[in-house]
Amino acid sequence: MVTGSSGLIGSEAVEHFDRQGHHVHGIDNNMRQVFFGDPGDTAWNLDRLCRTTKNFTHHNVDIRDRSALETLFRSQCFDLIVHCAAQPSHDKARDIPIVDFEVNALGTVNLLEATRLHCPEAVFVFLSTNKVYGDAPNEIPLKELETRWEYARPEDYDGIDENCRIDRTLHSLFGASKASADLMAQEYGRYFGMKVGVFRGGCLTGPSHSGVELHGFLSYLVKVALSGGTYSVFGYKGKQVRDNIHSHDVVRAIEAFAANPRPGEVYNMGGGRENSVSMLEAISKIEQLTGKKLNWAYVDENRKGNHICYISDLRKFQSHYPNWQLTKSLDTTLEEIVAATRAAVSSGVSR
Ligand SMILES: NC(=O)c1ccc[n+]([C@@H]2O[C@H](COP(=O)([O-])OP(=O)(O)OC[C@H]3O[C@@H](n4cnc5c(N)ncnc54)[C@H](O)[C@@H]3O)[C@@H](O)[C@H]2O)c1
User: Of all protein residues, whose CA lies closest to atom 37 belonging to ligand 1?
Assistant: First the structure.
């Protein structure tokens, strides 16, 4: 069972497990379009999945709807639940605090509880976020380089690990609703002993993102480069750093966890130092790849609670799952996003 199956990570998970011969069920109500308007519409991705998969069943269900989940979980016995459905933007959450909390926090508890009641032996992977750390990562001393912010102390080189505190920090409402879900997911693992894993994402990306201004920064940057418009860079001199991981590598990590689950564990999951990039560096890379000048404007105010330099420390996950490693470099990922966006632009498909 994959929730958010028409989104970036969900669709990658559907394809991956379908290719292996599993019967995959997906839940998605295209709420990304409700959050972000037509540019967030994921219908194209659902169409693509329906055309390309062998054994995929889609359910147009809202994860807030407990009785619909109950019916679904009664009718099937799932052995893996990959929970990706979410309101994913911290800026958007400010406008819709109740809906954000209902989808991110309550929706997650609905799924955890349905799993506990109907398939307690299943592995449950929850896609959490590095925003659960709020702006605590900004307390790390930084130095300013020509194109990016960088950790000043050698001991911070590998990035933020799972010991970073999650309270007494400014999260944004999105970070707080995801932190609630993150804690409840851990609790179902620790208290009930269920096989729950929590993955705190850095920037998750790939060609199947329906990138919008408020979520999916690389995919949206490429979209602006190829179809026009202006990209706004908010604060930090454009030198803010993000680590980017291809959705394929995220799903391989989920697969590794599912094969050998550790109940209640929490892992940071991103592209790590090798796939980190600043906003200015990303713009320059995308200009080179597309051969087009990207139109961007600097806004001298950072987004509230936004990280200045965030690199996921992947060492905990790698030590628990030594056979997993990153397979897609940032350049490869960007090339894939550019190719997919070019194809969509030339065929007039909205994505
Ligand atoms: N993409 C990132 O950079 C990133 C970073 C950190 C964490 N995450 C987390 O990873 C997960 C997956 O992210 P993504 O980038 O694939 O997001 P996405 O927006 O591409 O996909 C989420 C999907 O969930 C669906 N959805 C939303 N609300 C729903 C509801 N109430 N019922 C059913 N379906 C619903 C949406 O329509 C969408 O297709 C999310 O939990 C997100 O918070 C993502």
Answer: 30
| Per-residue pLDDT tens digits for 122-135 | 999 999 999 999 99
**Angle 78-83-88 (CA atoms, 0-180°, nearest 5)?**
165
Residues 125, 83 contacting (CB under 8 angstroms): yes
Of 80, 56, 52, 54, nearest to 251 (Cα)?
Answer: 80
Q: In the structure encoding, which two tokens stand for residue 94, read together?
A: 């400010």
Nearest CA to 24 out of 82, 87, 89, 92 is that of 82
Q: Look at residues 23, 35, 28, 36 and name the one whose alpha carbon lies nearest to residue 10.
A: 28
Does the beta carbon of 147 sit less than 6 angstroms from any atom of ligand 1?
no
Token pair of 142 as six digits: 């930084």
pTM for the model: 0.97
- Report the atom number in ligand 1 closest to the C-alpha of 210: 20
CA–CA gap between residue 255 and residue 280 (Å, rounded): 34
DSSP letter at 102?
I
